[in-house]
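Case 159 in the screening queue. Each case pairs one protein sequence with one candidate compound; here the compound is coenzyme A. For every case the pipeline is the same: read the inputs, emit a complex structure as tokens, and attach any notable structural observations.

Predict complex for case 159.
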Amino acid sequence: MPVCALYLSSWKATYSGILPQARLDEVDHQLIAKLWAGIFAELDLPRHSILVAEERDELIGVVHLSPSVDDPNDMEVARLYVLPEHQRRGVGSSLLADAERFGRLSGFRHASLWVVENHHAAQGFYTARGWLPTGESVTRQGDGWSVQELRYRLALPDV
Ligand SMILES: CC(C)(COP(=O)(O)OP(=O)(O)OC[C@H]1O[C@@H](n2cnc3c(N)ncnc32)[C@H](O)[C@@H]1OP(=O)(O)O)[C@@H](O)C(=O)NCCC(=O)NCCS
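Case 159 output:
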């Protein structure tokens, strides 16, 4: 799946130096293929969807939208990834703006997302677009690693 190649390439480029080595080592094509197969199996438009960005028939960006497990009135924005060579050209901003519009049209009242605690570039990207930290955090754990994530939220007023 092209989305797996995009996701893996952007994920590795982003998190090397940010996430513990044990976490970096366990993420490979097989794990990502399983992750996206699960996402595609759960798609249920319009509230559980994937938006993509393409340029000349190439997939260059993706974002996954679903109802939050904590509150079904919240749209969870996850896996916003742009290919490294296409970053900082407005693709991520367009995908996020489309996600917010899509969320409003699908009847969500808020959008929320989780960002790795020391991923300051992404935090700056979201706050510059009106998202605010809620003060909530979660610890994700795996074999030999532990990562703290922070929640950000945005109101989706009626249009
Ligand atoms: C975060 C991301 C989705 C933003 O998409 P993008 O297309 O690069 O962003 P845009 O071009 O729309 O906006 C660029 C702005 O975002 C911020 N930004 C994006 N990447 C940044 C980086 N690596 N370092 C610092 N600021 C960054 C800056 O404010 C930048 O503005 P500037 O170029 O004028 O300084 C993209 O960089 C990406 O895919 N990163 C890797 C995956 C990731 O971290 N996803 C978020 C997980 S929570």
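Case 159 observations:
- The domain at 2-155 is CATH 3.40.630.30 (Aminopeptidase).
- The chain has a mean pLDDT of 96.
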